[in-house]
């Protein structure tokens, strides 16, 4: 989730921000939008031309973020980058607390133009600022043995025009043990190359934050992360809407994973603990071996990684995803613009479950203050 004490928060303390979102009896919601540069500098504010819209985030997609905006101004569509934001205040007449929440940076598409009105309106879709990595590589791309994984990633970002990014340097010294080649293929995009390199050293896939910075960091399993928000049915802090449903689909979900390092450079065949990693879910949740009466469903993973430790982490990414996808919760809440990328939450609701541990995988936030919709998945505590 977004940090409680981001710069636009008017120097509020964390408890004030939580209280504003969760406890205000007459919450006032305002939407705005800025035109920004690739360097994330503000060019102009077009809030007075914003007639509505929403922001959507889908954590499992290559391009996680999108927005739908209605504007009454004509921009350089296709190249213009916009950053919507939300402003919350606690009283419509005499606000004592207000805070702004940036909601990401987006390349604009060619809009639907409505004529015959004054002013004319433009219904435009915006795509995550990661969109510039969606271009096809268009040639054979080779990463050389001995080169740093993170140095290659950074060079790609700079070449694609990105200057604002945050890279966790923990694995800066890790280098390719052998050359890696991406063959000429119309389906290979720069984001595929970047995410392949990050996965090889146990990093999560690249994502963009609420301000538009690109983020790259080590992968942390969901059950090792602390909850960032508590949703409760308590009448004093209730944000959950009436629309709540549970979708369970785990018929073919695996409960045994075998990961093999595909770029093993040693002369000896890979073996368990050295190039092979096996994990069996014996008793956690409805897809476990015990819950299925001993039935084992195996998923095989061939992964190009720097070493065995990175193999384990890369396999854990797939394991966590498979465990999460078996049960989904579709809910609505009052507006919470703190939400962002793979948020970790606790839910205390008698209809869904007491202190249910969930991960946010998708949400849509209307800018006009209407309820936001969420898709959550359960977090298996292994």
**Percent of sequence in beta strands:** 35-45%
CATH architecture name of the largest domain: Beta Barrel
Instruction: Please work out how many helical segments DSSP would assign.
Output: 4
Describe the sheet with the most strands. Answer: 15 strands, mixed
Q: How many domains, in number, for the residues?
A: 4
Strand and helix order: HEEEEEEEEEEHEEHEEEEEEEEHEEEE
Helix content: 10-25%
Work out the radius of gyration: 23 Å
What is the typical, i.e. mean, pLDDT?
A: 91
Number of strands: 24
Enumerate the spans where pLDDT stays under 50 for 5 or more consecutive residues: none
Classify the fold: give the CATH topology of the largest domain: Thrombin, subunit H
Summarize the structure.
By secondary structure, the protein is mainly beta.
């Amino acid at each position: 989730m977004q940090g409680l004490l981001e710069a636009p928060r008017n120097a509020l303390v964390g408890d004030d921000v939580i209280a504003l979102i969760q406890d205000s009896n007459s919450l006032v919601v305002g939407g705005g939008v800025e035109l920004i540069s690739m360097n994330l500098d503000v060019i102009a504010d077009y809030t007075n031309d914003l007639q509505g819209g929403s922001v959507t985030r889908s954590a499992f997609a290559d391009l996680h973020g999108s927005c739908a905006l209605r504007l009454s101004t004509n921009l350089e569509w296709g190249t213009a980058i916009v950053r919507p934001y939300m402003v919350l205040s606690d009283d419509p007449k005499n606000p004592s607390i207000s805070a702004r929440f940036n909601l990401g940076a987006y390349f604009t598409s060619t809009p639907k133009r409505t004529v015959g009105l004054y002013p004319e309106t433009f219904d435009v879709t915006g795509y995550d600022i990661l969109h510039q990595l969606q271009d096809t590589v268009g040639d054979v791309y080779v990463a050389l043995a001995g080169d740093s994984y993170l140095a290659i990633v950074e060079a790609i970002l700079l070449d694609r025009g990105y200057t604002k990014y945050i890279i966790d340097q923990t694995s800066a010294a890790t280098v390719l043990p052998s050359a890696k080649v991406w063959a000429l293929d119309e389906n290979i995009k720069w984001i595929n190359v970047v995410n392949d390199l990050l996965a090889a050293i146990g990093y999560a896939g690249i994502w963009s934050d609420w301000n538009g910075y690109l983020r790259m960091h080590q992968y942390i399993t969901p059950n090792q992360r602390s909850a960032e928000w508590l949703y409760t049915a308590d009448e004093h802090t209730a944000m959950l809407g009436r629309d709540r449903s549970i979708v369970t689909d785990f018929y073919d979900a695996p409960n045994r994973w075998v990961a093999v390092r595909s770029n093993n450079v040693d002369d000896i065949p890979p073996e368990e603990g050295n190039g092979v990693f096996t994990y069996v879910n014996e008793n956690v949740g409805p897809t476990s071996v015990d819950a299925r009466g001993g039935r084992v469903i195996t998923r095989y993973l061939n992964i190009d990684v720097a070493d065995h430790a990175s193999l384990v982490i890369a396999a854990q990414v797939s394991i966590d995803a498979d465990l999460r996808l078996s049960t989904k919760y579709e809910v609505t809440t009052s507006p919470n613009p703190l939400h962002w990328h793979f948020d970790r939450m606790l839910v205390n609701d008698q209809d869904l479950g007491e202190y249910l541990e969930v991960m946010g995988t998708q949400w849509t936030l209307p800018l006009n203050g209407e309820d936001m919709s969420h898709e959550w998945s359960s977090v298996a505590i292994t």
